[in-house]
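G., the chain you wanted modeled:
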Amino acid sequence: MSQRVYIFDTTLRDGEQVPGCQLTTEEKIVVAKELERMGVDIIEAGFPISSPGDFKSVVEISKSVTEPTICALSRAVKGDIDAAGEALKWAKRGRIHTGIGSSDIHIRNKFSSTREKILEQAIAAVKHAKTYVEDVEFYAEDAGRADLGFLAQLTEAVIKAGATVVNIPDTTGYCLPDEYGKKIAYIYEHVSNVHQATISIHCHNDLGLATANTLAGVMNGARQVEVTMNGIGERAGNTSLEEVVMAIKIKKELGLYTNVDSTRLFPVSNLVSQMMRMPVQANKAIVGRNAFAHSSGIHQDGFLKHSENYEIMNPHDVGVPKSSIVLTARSGRHALKHRLELLGYRYDKPTLDGIYTRFLDMADIRKEVNDKDLMELVR
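Predicted structure as tokens:
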């Protein structure tokens, strides 16, 4: 089995479903080009049947981006698939991503159908999509709550019908990591033709476990991950691209790799945040404002002695210019001394002790002490 994990970015499709985060076609092209520059393998550009704007976006991104595969979403409906196929005519490498619900909850309550009819519809959808493109991905929606036996039967059937990728999504963010990992392992153990396709994973973050579930899926054989920048997406969001990429990069014992240039993560995160008008939470892993910031005195002292005491990755590896020491009332003498020296001030210990006492009084009032405040303090 290949040790490469393919990065399927759905920022422009699933990520854009966040209320208030919609982009124009021109804005989507800007983001798509940055995703290409970063090295993602597949860009899901939109859901062509949903609106003329989404159809146009898939067309124009297909014309503007050449390296990644361009993917268009569809339901297991002929009209959807036709729209996706038409929109992908200009793609150098096009993929139709079609699918239907696989859990009994969806089969009964969403489709008012039966397992047998769902199986027939899935096979027909894949076969129809193959008339437009060779690369067809099938999604078994709500696989996180699906019966394992039926999920394996459905996976085997769509691969036989021509699916090159099968997506086993935890659509509702329901699974625990061990549970989801076992689900992927079950697919590999019980689907006879599984090695004729790539198994993909698409996890939502309803319980805050999207990244953990995605990694569990990869560790059990999946080789495509469906992710978004900053983890944006429906409800609580999707698996975060930057978290998965850096987890694979840092945990070398996994023996896996991606083709993503991690130094582009922070710049692209900022671009997506600005264009979608959706701030990144300060404590967000990898790209948050505080991801490489230290404010506790104990942490600051350890970091200043050796960065690896409190940082498991170099900020430059993700495109962050440098780590920061944030001066607050929790900071210690070492951090204050370090910041003063950066400003050109050096003091003996008794003098520094006096400045530190005044610093604590200032920090209690101002909460965070910046360089301008320090200049005022030493004067």
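The radius of gyration is 24 Å.

Shout if anything looks off.
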